[in-house]
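Hi V.,

Quick status before I head out on leave. The structure for the redesign project is tokenized and pasted below; the design run finished overnight.
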């Protein structure tokens, strides 16, 4: 894993969202974009994290920041997650983990004594010009939204 850092340009990408519409990062220039990588839709930690972002959507909008969640799930699974949790932001399907690889968040993990490759729960704040402004890697799923909002308000 060679994770990207603040000051580097964010790799451009196009992925399908939960409605199977293509979303391209460079098309979102002019606003900040929070890209948060999460392992799997509808799991307890990922649900807690997503619901925190859902409940603070107006705060992100007031700070000109769009939220994009990226996981290796297929669009249909993302749609079920969105519907069940009434999410109000875009979820993107990175089924081949090419975007996770490009950001350096795909790599070895351990869970319950098993080793495997997967997405590490890391978020990137991309500025209005497509440059990584900040990397968030020290948070709990329950306070992720608070950590990001505190940073945005202080920046």
């Amino acid at each position: 894993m060679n994770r990207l850092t603040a000051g580097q340009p964010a790799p451009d990408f196009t992925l399908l969202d939960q409605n199977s519409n293509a979303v391209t990062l460079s098309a979102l220039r002019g606003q900040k974009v929070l890209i948060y990588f999460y392992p799997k839709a509808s799991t307890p930690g990922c649900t807690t994290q997503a619901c925190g972002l859902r409940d603070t959507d107006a705060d992100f909008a007031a700070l000109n920041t769009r939220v994009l969640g990226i996981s290796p799930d297929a669009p249909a699974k993302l749609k079920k997650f969105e519907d069940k949790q009434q999410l109000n932001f875009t979820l993107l399907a990175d089924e081949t983990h090419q975007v996770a690889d490009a950001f350096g968040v795909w790599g070895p993990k351990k869970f319950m004594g098993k080793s495997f490759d997967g997405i590490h729960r890391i978020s990137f704040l991309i500025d209005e010009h497509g440059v990584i402004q900040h990397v968030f890697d020290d948070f709990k799923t329950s306070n992720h939204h608070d950590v990001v909002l505190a940073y945005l308000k202080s920046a």
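Above is the designed sequence. The first helix runs from residue 44 to 55.

G. will cover questions while I'm gone.

Best,
W.
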